[in-house]
């Protein structure tokens, strides 16, 4: 049975790619400067202004997608006789996955013959967007809904989501680490390396002193864990730090396993507001153990080790 592919704007896909792939996109909302906003076209988003105001202290709040929104979007698709595969951001960092499952349960009564499969990508940004593109490819190839859903869950597991942040205080402002940890990290110049974990949360997997070293470690993780790079497009997403993204791209293109292509996009405002200005992320398809590969905390100092322990939390 034919299925429609639906995702949301946290997938960070350029509108051009979304339109080409025939993907339905539900906008997430955020509140900024006293107003509610959405961002359906990341190419038109003024990231420099948005993240600049965040640096200056302007607060941002975000909202998950309500079940009613899913009912409104899904009902016409189901009425046309199509199944639905919904590509969702990590269940451990958003309640959206619970909302879509609640909507699916409600709709099953009216459409018992239709399938609604929600895919927990255990990631966000292009870690979600790439899964949506793969879902569209499977749809176009004529794959059955349930077979495609099983494939996409495995695909999501192998999608590596790794990133670093520039200013630890943005994690602190969102209540994601203690004030002491933020201060210690700032004084020591520690840059945590974070990843999408096996339980759909975000955890620190390493730490270094200095921005340049953190960018280099992202590239090193890619070179270690990537599979069949010559066949895939990988993603680099930045929150108003294009020069650092340039550096990361250069490192990856010059390594022993360069990818077929690199997609560069800015962070859209919802996911970007949670990682903060200066966040730099890398997304690629990796080994089966890409989410559980041995983590390297090295040895800077006992104080630094204590800080990294505190940073192991959802963001």
Keywords:
disordered C terminus; four-stranded parallel sheet; Hypothetical Protein Tm841, Chain: A,domain 3; single chain; 2 domains; alpha/beta; six-stranded mixed sheet; 23% strand; Rossmann fold; 315 residues; globular
Fold and architecture overview:
It is a single chain. It is built from 12 helices and 13 strands. It is an alpha/beta fold and 315 residues long. The strands form 3 sheets. A 6-stranded mixed sheet has the order 10-9-8-13-11-12, sandwiched between helices. The two termini are 37 Å apart.
Task: Draw up the topology in text.
Elements: E1 3-8, H1 15-21, E2 24-26, E3 29-32, E4 35-38, H2 47-55, E5 60-63, H3 67-79, E6 83-88, H4 96-108, E7 116-120, H5 126-140, H6 145-157, E8 159-164, H7 168-173, H8 179-188, E9 190-196, E10 202-209, H9 211-225, E11 233-238, H10 242-253, E12 261-266, H11 269-275, E13 280-285, H12 302-311
Parallel strand pairs: 1-2, 1-6, 6-7, 11-12
Antiparallel strand pairs: 3-4, 3-5, 8-9, 8-13, 9-10, 11-13
Helix pairs in contact: 3-4, 5-6, 8-12, 9-10
The CATH first-level class of the largest domain comes to Alpha Beta
What are the low-pLDDT stretches, counting only 5+ consecutive residues below 50? 175-180, 296-301, 310-315
Q: Tally the helices.
A: 12
Overall pLDDT metric: 87
Q: Return the string of H and E elements.
A: EHEEEHEHEHEHHEHHEEHEHEHEH
CATH fold descriptor of the largest domain: Hypothetical Protein Tm841, Chain: A,domain 3
């Amino acid at each position: 049975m034919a299925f429609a592919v639906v995702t949301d704007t946290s997938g960070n896909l350029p509108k051009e790619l979304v339109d080409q792939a025939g993907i339905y996109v539900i906008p997430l909302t955020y509140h900024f400067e006293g107003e509610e906003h959405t961002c359906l076209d990341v190419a038109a988003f003024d990231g420099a202004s948005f993240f600049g105001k965040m640096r200056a202290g302007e607060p941002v709040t975000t909202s998950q997608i309500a079940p009613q929104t899913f009912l409104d979007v899904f009902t016409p698709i189901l009425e046309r006789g199509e199944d639905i595969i919904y590509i969702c951001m990590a269940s451990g960092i958003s309640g959206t996955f619970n909302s879509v499952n609640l909507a699916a349960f409600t709709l099953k009564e009216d459409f018992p013959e239709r399938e609604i499969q929600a895919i927990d990508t255990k990631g966000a940004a292009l870690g979600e967007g790439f899964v949506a593109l793969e879902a569209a490819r499977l749809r176009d190839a004529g794959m059955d809904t349930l077979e495609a859903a099983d494939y996409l869950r495995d695909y999501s597991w192998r999608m590596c989501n790794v990133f670093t942040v520039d200013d630890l205080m943005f994690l602190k402002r969102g209540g994601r680490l203690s004030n002491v940890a933020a201060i210690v990290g700032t004084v020591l110049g520690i840059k945590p390396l974070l990843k999408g974990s096996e339980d759909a949360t975000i955890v620190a997997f390493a730490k270094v002193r200095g921005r340049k070293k953190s960018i280099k470690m992202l590239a090193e993780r890619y070179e270690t864990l990537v599979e069949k790079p010559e066949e895939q497009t990988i993603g680099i997403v930045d929150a108003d730090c294009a020069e650092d993204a340039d550096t990361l791209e250069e490192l990856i293109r010059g390594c022993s396993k360069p990818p077929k292509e690199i997609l560069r996009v800015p962070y859209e405002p919802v996911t970007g507001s949670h990682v903060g200005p200066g966040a730099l992320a890398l997304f690629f398809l990796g080994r089966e153990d890409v989410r559980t590969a041995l983590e390297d905390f090295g040895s800077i100092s006992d104080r630094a080790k204590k800080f990294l322990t505190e940073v192991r939390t959802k963001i």
